[in-house]
Amino acid sequence: MEWNLDDLYAGPADPRIEEDLKAALALAQGLDPQGLLDPKGAQDLLGRYEKALELAYKPLNYASLYFATRAQDPEAKTLLDRVRSRFTEVRNRLVPLEVALRKLPEEAFQRLLAHPGLADLGHFLKRQRAYAPHTLSEREEELLNLKALVGRSAWSQFYTEYTGRFRFRVGERELTEMEVRALRRDPDPEVRREAHRALYGKLLAEAPTLSAVFNAVYLDYLQDLRLRGYRHPLEPVALRDEVEVREIEALLEATKAHYPLVERYYRWKAGRLGREKTPSEDLLAPLGEKPKVPFAEAQALVLEAFRRFSPELAEIAREFFEKRWIDVYPRPGKRGGAFCSGGLPSTHPYILLNHTDDLDSAHTLAHELGHGVHFYPARKQHLLNFGASTPLAETASVFAEILLDDLLLERLSGEEKTLLLAERVEDAINTLFRQVMYTFFEQRSLEARKEAALSPEAFHALWDEEQRRLYGEAVAWTELDRAAWAGIPHFVHYRFYTYSYALGYLVVLALYGKYREEGEAFVPKYLRILEAGESASPKEILAEAGVELGSEAFFRYGFGVLESWLKALP
């Protein structure tokens, strides 16, 4: 199944793409920031601001999705470049209004908050206000937006294009990155070793080029911190996520304190493999025969898992398949990984997969469809309140995976159940612990970048240290493992995004605990979390469901659940 993008545009030559971009620019050019001084005028201005964003983002969303499955197609690249440039032009025309809103006199700002016509934009207004200390002049903001086109955006696109051309030889087969990564879970140990050598050997060979990309995006971020007056590298992330830097640091330290759980698991796995230590080539090795899961079966399993929790969510999920909002299988030129593009309140989400007909791919489907059913009900919000804040961004996705596991565990017994429990623990390690390890690596490499560009060897050394710290003495590493950092796109595309997976996972465990306690009574609370979008802060949204984000009890509960899973392993 390939996705059908006709709900956005008929094709790259659709004249509506240009018409929408022109209309967006016309709207953006006609916004007078002086209108913010009057609440009624501000209501009209923000309505037109929102419409301009919608008209500009729709072509960008289409061009990005079109490019994602045609990364080597010159037409797709040209379209994305053109639309991205026009989108930036629109964004620049909106900058004066954004700057004025952030720097509005306090009395005038309070009048906006008190105006009934702006009541449902209260959180958006406060979020804008929070950025005031780090907002530059109109001209400076415009220049930074323009510079981003040849800065971080260009490097991000280059990384996607460059790594998208990678091919890996395993035996007689030439494979894409996602296909070779899937082979790291193959039942045959020799296939796993070949896949490991092919994947990390390629990353090691390409490290000089990829380290240049990392150095460029890190320097861009450091300059941004300086220009905007941030005092801590995590401060922009904390501001974005509406948490405190100390709360992010508490999460990192609490997770690091529980690293021994990871070492414990991999010592257990080594025993199952008949080894003293788990070879790095076998980190993802199945402990028994893993079932093949064709896409049709994965679809049925995920829909049933959703239905058992909420028939309403299951019906939303069903639309993704019936209306071809999903691109399923890997193919040459298609980007690796998986994602869900939330789209706009006026459109709908799209999901990209690289399904390889195994249980891991079924979990990925559940994960991305979880995102999809998060974005879908949030469409009742304004565009300015749409989506999901980062602490909640991974909540529905990981929750969906746990629902799938619950279904599978009920259908299994004995050794099969043990194997799935082990899978659950490994998923927790990869989603929670490894993401924190990634964050520590990113922190240390960013700090080192302040002094000078890092050599590939410097990146290798930092990665090796953090990896060994996480796994303790339970894993036997190879020289090739030192290059794994180069194959993690999050380090290029985002800053400190990976910690949110860890936070999201702990949020999920807290919500899941509530579900186990309350049963069906919890479902409406969960649906309200999805529907809320970004209409309130993550702490406020979660508090309604009885979860206190970042509290000591919050951490204690989450890690307690993980420890119970480990104890359940024979």
Task: Describe what you observe in this structure.
The protein has 570 residues and is mainly α. It has a domain at 5-149: Butyryl-CoA Dehydrogenase, subunit A, domain 3, CATH 1.20.140.70. The chain contains 24 helices and seven strands. The strands form three sheets. It has a three-stranded mixed beta sheet with strand order 4-6-5, with helices on both faces. It has a two-stranded antiparallel sheet with strand order 1-2. It has a two-stranded parallel sheet with strand order 3-7. Strand 1 and strand 2 (173-175) form a beta hairpin. Helix 17 (395-411) packs antiparallel against helix 18, helix 17 crosses helix 21 and helix 18 packs across helix 19 (456-471). The radius of gyration is 24 Å and the shape is globular.
Write the SSE topology.
Elements: H1 15-29, H2 39-68, H3 74-102, H4 106-114, H5 122-130, H6 138-148, H7 152-164, E1 168-170, E2 173-175, H8 177-182, H9 189-228, H10 235-241, H11 245-257, H12 259-273, E3 278-279, H13 295-309, H14 311-322, E4 326-327, E5 339-341, E6 350-352, H15 359-375, H16 390-393, H17 395-411, H18 414-449, H19 456-471, E7 475-476, H20 490-493, H21 498-518, H22 523-532, H23 538-543, H24 552-567
Parallel strand pairs: 3-7, 4-6
Antiparallel strand pairs: 1-2, 5-6
Helix pairs in contact: 1-2, 1-3, 2-3, 3-6, 7-9, 13-14, 13-15, 13-17, 14-15, 15-17, 17-18, 17-21, 18-19, 18-21, 21-24
User: Overall mean pLDDT score?
Assistant: 93
CATH class label of the domain at 5-149 = Mainly Alpha
The largest pleated sheet is described as: 3 strands, mixed
Computed CA radius of gyration, to the nearest angstrom: 24 Å
- N- and C-termini, Cα separation: 40 Å
CATH topology of the domain at 5-149: Butyryl-CoA Dehydrogenase, subunit A, domain 3
Give me the number of helical elements. 24
Largest beta sheet: strand ordering: 4-6-5
Low-confidence stretches: none
